[in-house]
């Protein structure tokens, strides 16, 4: 019969109490930092008017729960289809998932719990962040011991990057949660390999793939690891094979509902989402720099998921045949393959650069300019630590782990290092390497590497613990050598050796804020942010057009026209810029008139629409200036005369200026006499002036009724 040692039990109890107290303090400090950042974040315009992917997640989540969201004013900036400033419709039901679906469904649940509150949803996400710190403690204690577990929890609770991403409407906080749960499940299975634990680990990995499909590349690595671990255990061969089969079954069960839904919605076999080919093309095309940096010449404006949804339609138009989302993805894979074949050395150099970009000290941009978000946050910029320090401590932790493994030094206590724990730590290292290489194949940015930082900090916690042990053991020479090596490594990682230029990130930081202010109806602040962005890069014609429309909404027509001219200077090969912008500006007004005209047999000579606000009046004034400028550029060109006068006449008709409309429409008719739409509009202008016989001649119908 075994007897317990009361001294050992008391010592364990005291240590457990100390751990709980330390963990409570860590979580309390983490909660305080998150509360401070949430108060700070509420002043950011993107807090209630998110952009790019977060905006789509917001639309999708609210669509799922039937919440229209907080009311917003109509934006004065009109953009091409697919670039909405107003709230979008969410995810269409007839397409496969165009974004990983796990996070929008989580966000919908958070909105449901908080009444659609942006503050409440983010507060709950920060609660998930604290849960991640708690899970980090359990994972660190299981694999490395009590003290490293507490250090790991402290890093998860206090590192600025986690706090930042918990405040974003993005999947990073969910990805970290699922990764920690997966690694805990894998470590538990390694300690006691039964099929139920293997099945649970597979389910968690499948859920992780639904939240971030890049993790699909880890499935074969994890399956081989499970098979190898099962093979090392004694038992029948059938028992050894049952473990990886149970693991893979869990993966399939988690992913299958998404695949089935995609097939039912679109009739195509799409595992999770069909955008891999497009993303692969973006990161590897000939003009790619391996990141999400924009091309100033083609920037108009920031892409949204609504643009991605139109890729298959554009491709079908180009190919002259219908094509689905899955085939669109394969088409872009083929385009990328062709680009690589055309210049393999350029592709290889780009691949090496992307692999190096992962380790750059800068926070490279994707959905947001993270580097400048941190720089401009009073809370985040005062928190210690950066990616260079994380990378340094990670490498130090890996080196110490390998050294201690060879010397059979215990990780948890004075006992011999056991096989299951060391194998689980090697799995963490494999996870980091697999994901790093997978992203290298596509593109690199801060958003992609953020979910890997917690795994790196697990080794960092071990490095900090071992360094403290050297100090406590008075091994000052070894500690000093380690500190010097660490300082040198940190200095190396702090060098921007890839030459990444933050100019784009700085521009985008101001541009996104301007876009958010426009969505919120704060036009003066939007103008200031647009001007700041254009001081950084005045060659972005799309931003100049946005500024022009916002200035017009404030009645500053001369300044607005200067901005349009600046856009033309940025795009000198696009003379239609004046005409295209003008037609977008007048479209809501003239289409309302055309609809009114179609409803009545007699032409409405005065359009009794709702009174126009100042923003609409400014848009129309700017449109008229742009059309006149377009006409003045080449008045001898019949096509220019037709397009400009047709639009000016249509606008004058809608405004009730029949005389002006007649003059412009006559000029358009002279440029293209056979255009029936111009003849019909000219007849309308003539009838509104009582010139019924002449109008009938243009209509080809002398019996047309007179306008009273």
What's the topology here?
Blueprint (H helix, E strand, L loop, with lengths): L5 H36 L10 H14 L36 H13 L3 H26 L2 H13 L1 H7 L5 H20 L3 H17 L6 H15 L4 H30 L9 H9 L20 H4 L2 H9 L5 H18 L1 H14 L12 H6 L11 H20 L12 H23 L4 H4 L3 H20 L3 H18 L9 H18 L2 H14 L4 H13 L3 H14 L6 H23 L14 H20 L4 H18 L2 H14 L4 H13 L3 H8 L9
Helix pairs in contact: 1-4, 1-5, 2-3, 3-4, 4-5, 4-7, 5-20, 7-8, 7-18, 8-10, 9-10, 9-18, 11-14, 14-15, 15-18, 17-20, 17-21, 20-21, 22-23, 23-24, 24-25, 24-27, 25-27, 26-27, 26-28, 27-28, 28-29, 28-30, 29-30, 30-31
Can you describe this structure?
The chain is mostly helical. It has four domains: 13-43 and 91-272 and 367-491, no CATH class; 276-357, no CATH class; 503-570, Alpha Horseshoe (Serine Threonine Protein Phosphatase 5, Tetratricopeptide repeat), CATH 1.25.40.10; 577-699, Serine Threonine Protein Phosphatase 5, Tetratricopeptide repeat (Alpha Horseshoe), CATH 1.25.40. The protein is 69% helix and 0% strand. It has 31 helices and no strands. The protein has helices at residues 6-41, 52-65, 102-114, 118-143, 146-158, 160-166, 172-191, 195-211, 218-232, 237-266, 276-284, 305-308, 311-319, 325-342, 344-357, 370-375, 387-406, 419-441, 446-449, 453-472, 476-493, 503-520, 523-536, 541-553, 557-570, 577-599, 614-633, 638-655, 658-671, 676-688, 692-699. Helix 14 packs across helix 15 and helix 27 (614-633) packs antiparallel against helix 28. The radius of gyration is 31 Å and the shape is elongated. It starts with 5 loop residues before the first helix and ends in a 9-residue tail after the last helix. The relative contact order is 0.08. The model is unreliable at 410-417 and 701-708 (pLDDT under 50).
